[in-house]
Specification:
With 413 residues, this protein is of the alpha/beta class. The protein has 17 helices and 13 strands. A seven-stranded parallel β-sheet has the order 3-2-1-4-5-6-7. It comes from Bradyrhizobium jicamae.
Amino acid sequence: MTKRSILFVTDELFLPLPPKNASGWLYYTIAETYKKRGWEVYCLSFFRDRQLARSPAVNAAYGGLFRDFLLLPGWNRGGHPLGAIGQVWREAERALTGNVLSSHPFLLTNNVGAARKIAETLGKWQVDVIYLAKPQSVQLLGRVLHELSGGRRPLVVMSAHDDFVSRAIAYRGTYQRLFDSLSLSEILRDHANAWVRHRLERIDVVRSRRAETTIFDACHLVRVESADEFTAYSRMNSSTAKLSHKPFSYVAPIQRHLEVPSEAFDAGFIGSNDVMNLDAVLYLRDVILPIIRKAAPEFRMLLAGGISSKVRPIVAGVGNVTVWESLDDVSSFYRAIRVAAVPLRAGTGVSIKVLEALSFGRPIVSTPVGVRGLPRKLLANTIVTSDPNEFAQALLRERLVADLPQDGLAVDG
């Protein structure tokens, strides 16, 4: 059987490990899975920081995972003045037109000569499949896909694990909830840029969906992880690309059993300082924890990850909530908690925090948003509910179960 080959195209650098965000973890796990299955795996990643892209650590990590790779300047052209102008162009177009998928003409790949040279390099790899990590990857390729069309044409597949139009709408509502909960001084201190952008932003759904269709049309197949998003796309789709519902099924093998320390937290929430995570803490603070406190006033909650840089004003004065300022090793978080709580109210894509909790063998209580894009087979031991009372009661039950000896556990009835 002829060995198959695949090219991954990502909108950012995601190596060396650990990646800086959830998207990076998804890129790595998908690429690693294909490599383990015997595929020849190549990569093209776009970057913003030219110095980082040239670093020995980044290049060694890419060289270790991929048969060959290419690192190209992205939206800002790696710090080039034209890139700065292009980014202003992109933001201005988004503000003026409401197109949340705006691009700009100064991408390196929009230069005919550069696009042709890049296409020649990719052509030499003779890949069977080009896997585009998200819509922005298509935009960043500029004219390259067009230049590839003259030779051996690989199957072009795009992952739509984020619906960026719905995401923009969700972000707008979520930012409004966050700003309503903070004082003006707190907003200006921690969220000034986001607040200004929120005030100036407009979203034209029709124009944005039209731009999305153009991106989809550049592909043969569009994979959608979330069942809800697949249904929505199928209803409104006018693209020539075929839509396919493919839940994200990879999770790292369960790591060695983590003993819970005697001073363990009853539950924990980990995440970046993204507004969706901050909104989850608001939901936890205002709705879920008050229900829990009635039954267990001593219930202890841990918040960790990048969220720690902006979450303190939200939980100031809330009893038995601890914020870890730094987290060098994610395993220390899962070692410190009995239950992983994922109270997300908005968001798109696959939640890395759920995949992490699964890999560390911790019980999970999540909203439906927190587990979107994941197949049921991965969620057999996960409690999923949109009802805050059920969410609170599940955290209380899982906390008690976690304290029981696991060997010979018997359940009445």
